[in-house]
Write a structure and sequence with these properties.
- The chain has a seven-stranded mixed β-sheet.
- About 25% of the residues lie in helices and about 30% in strands.
- The N and C termini lie far apart (about 35 Å).
- By secondary structure, it is α/β, with parallel strands linked by helices.
- The chain contains six helices and seven strands; from the N terminus they run H-H-E-H-E-H-E-E-H-E-H-E-E.
- Helix 3 links the parallel strand 1 and strand 2.
Length: about 210
């Protein structure tokens, strides 16, 4: 998606992939997001990038957060809006490309990135903009695949440049305090697209209040 969940491919690619009644990444939120949601304050403004079909945005809306779901696929976001309707919550949807999306300084209490894979040059730019876009005390929460994921073949991009490491994320997110940062192997069960053992990196980082 990322500009969608796995790669900066064209909107037509993702529109075609989402053009099915099935939610290819499932209905339930990401495990790491569920485990870490306490870091995101309630009644706060949260941006979910590469949100696709909306499972994570809907989960956060159920936690009384004001959620904006951003993706480059109109089809994916239409499914996100439908999922929100079925769950009786409200989310905002924004069709946009992260290459030129304007985050705005100090605009968000939290930004969530779940398997939103970008080429390294774009990813660095996006992360620098996210640091500026977080309000003091705001939190960035991320889970992504590491280069070791190429051995597992259970989801994610095949291009090593689009896979993340904890060391690279610490550099790209300079200015944030890491509350949690780890690389691990875990079982991922998310729809038909993410299934099986996977090599992941997980981050929770907060912008200092002073």
């Amino acid at each position: 998606m990322t500009i969608n969940s796995h790669s900066p491919k064209t909107p037509n690619f993702w529109d075609a992939r989402y053009q099915t009644d099935e939610y290819i990444f499932g209905f339930t939120p990401n495990d790491f997001l569920q485990q870490s949601v306490q870091y995101l304050p309630k009644d706060s403004a949260i941006l979910c990038i590469g949100e696709g079909e909306g499972r994570n945005a809907v989960f956060l809306a159920k936690q009384e957060m004001r959620v904006t779901a951003l993706d480059m696929s109109m089809v994916g976001l239409a499914k996100a809006a439908e999922l929100a309707k079925q769950n009786r919550v409200t989310i905002d949807t924004v069709v946009a490309d992260l290459t030129n999306y304007e985050f705005h300084d100090a605009a968000w209490d939290g930004v969530v990135s779940i398997f939103c894979h970008l080429p390294s040059i774009l990813r660095t730019s996006v992360h620098q903009r996210i640091v500026k876009a977080l309000r003091p005390g705001g939190v960035y929460l991320l889970e992504a695949y590491t280069p070791a994921q190429l051995e597992y073949q259970t989801g994610g991009p095949k291009d090593p440049d689009m896979l993340y490491t904890l060391n690279a994320l610490r550099q790209e997110l300079s200015g944030l305090e890491f509350l949690h940062g780890a690389e691990s192997i875990r079982e991922v069960k998310e729809g038909i697209a993410h299934q099986g053992l996977a090599a992941v990196v997980q981050v929770v980082a907060r912008k200092p209040t002073r």
